[in-house]
Design goal:
It contains 23 helices and 12 strands. With 461 residues, it is α/β, with parallel strands linked by helices. The structure holds flavin mononucleotide. This is L-lactate dehydrogenase (Cytochrome).
Length: 461
């Protein structure tokens, strides 16, 4: 039997404590996003289909990306109990410098397409949060513009080595002069992956207006207002002749890049060099032996070879092979701070986020990127506290089990050809030896004729 009474006015009043409404629509929108997937939903609503799909999409059937995200979801954490973790320290050291959290922003091409603030928002937000920002060769803000947006923080530069080598070398020299401390040499793009969404959308650079794009623009007036009232959208470091992203990549990339290029870049670049896009244990070992400062296990966010190995899954084997002291980083599929915690526990020194940052950018410019970082920070912090861990260094493999879904029928044959094709730089131990190998083999000279290519071919890149 329930006893009933008249509601008391004082109690009713207590229930009616309405919060002051948030008048800033952008803040209201962003505060309502509790996860990176929430930011993705807002981003989709606010961004024209072709630009959203260019960002959100991957290659072919998009299996690599889906598998990478699934692998993070298939993690089981093992917490310790009765271990006080009232405050947690998320800071770490990476490539000779500090980072306030164990992740940085990955290089992304054509970022002002997603939202007009582009790389400036990313670099500014990264600087404010104390984490590194990476500018892509295919960026839409200049090297100097990124430095101005993040004058006191860490900026990294991602290099595509192009057919016209001198363009790439020139960019590396400019980034070094602007104080960028780390170079990411991307090696997983001998040719462009098949981004089918871009083909289906007729997406090109610069974007072309069609009846479809105009209809799609109607509910997204702010993006178009930004697009039409801000400086022209173009690559800040390259001149192009236009075309689909795939065509541009194919025109610019050189499928013949090799370890010899790595040795040449070593001579040009004074800071740290990491190789991005490493996808097996043998290459990881060879690169670390060749003296690179670090490797990034990555399949380019699933945008290149579909069904490529899942970088997070490679991590334990790679770390076992190269040792826990080597700088192994990982990206692809990170959508939650817990994904970052799991990666660090399994031996990654650092992680990179691509789309998670871009969803924030599309959802709300600089404030949106701040929100991405805040969401990831709180997820990392909470996961660590729940694990009973109070610093990054305390995370260990025993905290994580990767649950198995896709089981290989047999292990891949260890890169048999690798020994035969082992390049000079790889055979010599240590970075200095790699440098010597390249110059004594006259490879710097070999690059010279390419460097002297006429300006016409440059325009094509
Ligand atoms: C829109 C977009 C553009 C990208 N452009 C580049 C690029 O120019 N250079 C590069 O090395 N990687 C590029 N990447 C790959 C990212 O650096 C990173 O490896 C990938 O996004 C990680 O996966 P995630 O998006 O699931 O975090 C791009 C990724 C996206 C989503």
């Amino acid at each position: 039997m329930v006893t009933r009474q008249f509601p008391k006015p004082a109690e009713l009043l207590e229930l009616m404590q309405f919060k002051k409404p948030e008048l800033d629509a952008r803040k209201r929108r962003l505060d309502a996003a509790l996860t990176i997937y929430d930011l993705r939903t807002i981003a989709k609503r606010r961004t024209p289909k072709a630009a959203f799909d260019y960002t959100d999409g991957a290659a072919e059937g998009e299996l690599s990306l889906a598998r990478a995200r699934q692998a993070f979801e298939d993690v089981e954490f093992h917490p310790d109990v009765l271990r006080p973790a009232e405050s947690v320290d998320l800071s770490t050291e990476i490539l000779g410098g500090p980072s306030a959290m164990p992740f940085g922003i990955a290089p992304t091409g054509f970022t002002r397409l997603m939202q007009t603030e582009g790389e400036t928002a990313g670099a500014g937000a990264a600087g404010a949060a104390g984490i590194p920002f990476t500018l892509s060769t295919l960026g839409t803000t200049s090297i100097e513009g990124v430095k101005a947006a993040n004058p006191n923080g860490r900026n990294w530069f991602q290099l595509y080595v192009m057919r016209d080598r001198e363009i790439s070398y020139g960019l590396a020299r400019r980034a070094a002069a602007a104080g960028f401390d780390t170079l990411q040499f991307t090696v997983d793009t001998p040719v462009a992956g098949a981004r089918l969404r871009d083909k289906r959308n007729g997406f090109s650079i610069p974007p072309q207006l069609t009846l479809g794009t105009i209809i799609n623009a109607i509910p997204r007036p702010w993006w178009w207002y930004d697009f039409l009232t801000t400086p022209k959208l173009e690559f800040a470091s390259l001149s192009t002749t236009g075309g689909t992203v795939g065509e541009l990549l194919d025109a610019a990339m050189d499928p013949t890049i090799s370890y010899d290029d790595l040795a040449i870049i070593r001579d040009i670049w004074p800071g740290k060099i990491v190789v991005k896009g490493v996808q097996n244990v043998a290459d990881s070992k060879r690169l670390i032996d060749a003296g690179v400062d670090g490797i990034i296990l990555s399949n380019h966010g699933g945008r290149q070879l579909d069904r490529a190995p899942i970088p997070f899954r490679l991590l334990p084997d790679v770390v076992r092979e190269v040792g826990r002291d080597a700088t192994v980083m990982v990206d692809t599929g990170i959508m939650n701070g817990a994904d970052i915690v799991a990666s660090i526990a399994l031996g990654a020194k650092f992680t990179l986020i691509g789309r998670a940052y871009l969803y924030g950018l599309m959802a709300g410019g600089r404030q949106g990127v701040d929100r991405t970082i805040a969401i990831l920070r709180s997820e990392i912090e909470r996961t660590m506290k729940l694990l009973g861990v109070s610093s990054i260094a305390e995370l260990e493999p025993r905290h994580v089990t990767q649950l198995q879904r896709l089981v290989p029928v047999s292990a891949p044959v260890a890169a048999a050809a690798s020994a035969a094709s082992a390049p000079r730089a790889a055979r010599s131990a240590g970075g200095t030896a790699a440098k010597t190998a390249a110059s004594s083999a006259g490879k710097a000279d070999a690059a010279a004729p390419r460097a002297a290519k006429p300006a016409a071919s440059r325009a094509k890149a």
